[in-house]
């Protein structure tokens, strides 16, 4: 594609942004509308001649005559419309170079190398902060996981303690230290019983030789 064609495409795109439609489409719309009016007009002329001049003119003569008029009329209209289109595109739909669309306003400011360096430094700093935050978030997730596990352990211990308290309650023990004391006393009783049995066994066996 030629460079001139690319430039024309850019101009048309900018005009479309500015006006909300392409100037060429506007001209085509006007041409089609006028063309429709001409066709309707010539059809009305042909109908009128058929109704009023049927005695002196045949249908073929009327049709041939209206076609000739239409051809001459369209030839004149096309040449006139070409001049109209050139004038409209050049003087009405041309956008001056100083006109700037709102969305293109940021392009007016061009960054200097120093500003670009500062911007790059800010971007690098933000990247580092993001990296640090990701690390902190990972640690927080680990802590949260440990806390959840600790919470589960506490819940399990609570269930076991409740079961132990229920067991002690059924055994007539109201406090844990009483249970420990009772266990200790039972152990001492068992120990004394074993010592007594050993002593009796030795007495029955008699003195050793």
TrEMBL record:
Keywords: Cell cycle, Cell division, Centromere, Chromosome, Coiled coil, Kinetochore, Mitosis. It holds the Pfam family Mis12. InterPro entries: Centromere_Mis12. GO terms for cellular component: MIS12/MIND type complex; nucleus. It comes from the Eukaryota. GO terms for biological process: cell division; kinetochore assembly; mitotic sister chromatid segregation. The keyword Nucleotide-binding does not apply. Coiled coil: none annotated. It is found in: Chromosome, Centromere, Kinetochore. Belongs to the mis12 family. This is Protein MIS12 homolog.
């Amino acid at each position: 594609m030629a460079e001139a064609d690319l430039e024309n495409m850019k101009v048309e795109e900018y005009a479309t942004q500015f006006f909300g439609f392409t100037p060429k489409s506007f001209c085509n719309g006007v041409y089609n509308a006028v063309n429709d009016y001409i066709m309707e007009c010539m059809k009305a002329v042909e109908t009128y001649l058929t109704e009023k001049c049927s005695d002196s003119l045949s249908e073929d003569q009327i049709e041939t005559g209206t076609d000739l008029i239409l051809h001459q009329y369209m030839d004149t209209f096309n040449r006139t419309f070409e001049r109209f289109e050139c004038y409209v595109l050049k003087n009405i739909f041309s956008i001056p170079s100083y006109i700037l669309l709102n969305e293109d306003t940021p392009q007016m400011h061009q960054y200097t190398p120093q500003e670009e360096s500062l911007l790059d430094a800010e971007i690098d700093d933000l990247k580092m902060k993001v990296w640090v935050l990701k690390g902190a978030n990972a640690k927080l997730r680990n802590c949260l996981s440990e806390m959840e596990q600790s919470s589960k352990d506490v819940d399990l211990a609570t269930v076991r303690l409740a079961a132990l308290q229920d067991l002690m309650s059924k055994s007539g023990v109201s406090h844990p230290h009483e249970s420990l004391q009772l266990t200790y006393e039972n152990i001492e009783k068992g120990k004394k019983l074993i010592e007594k049995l050993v002593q009796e066994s030795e007495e029955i066996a008699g003195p050793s030789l």
